[in-house]
Amino acid sequence: MHADKAKTIRKLKTVGGQIEGLIKMVENDRYCIDISNQLMASISILKNINKDVLSAHLNHCVYQALENDDPDDAKEKLKEIEDIITKLNKI
Description:
The chain has three helices and no strands. By secondary structure, it is mainly α. Helix 1 packs antiparallel against helix 2 (32-67). The two termini are 23 Å apart. The relative contact order is 0.11.
């Protein structure tokens, strides 16, 4: 992975803490809107992490495949990006 590992891990740990908090909120029968707000905050951080990871992939792996003049590798990397875009559109 070529994204900033320390930053990615810090964000993932933040989401992990939020998930733990969400579990407690559900166990304690907290107000649904409060739970929903926390869920949206967690989702937002995960989307941000995914953006960082995909950006690093584009800037390193895809760029490198295009620079190396390897048409098969470049096609594979571009297909991976197409597949991710398709998945993102389903979310």
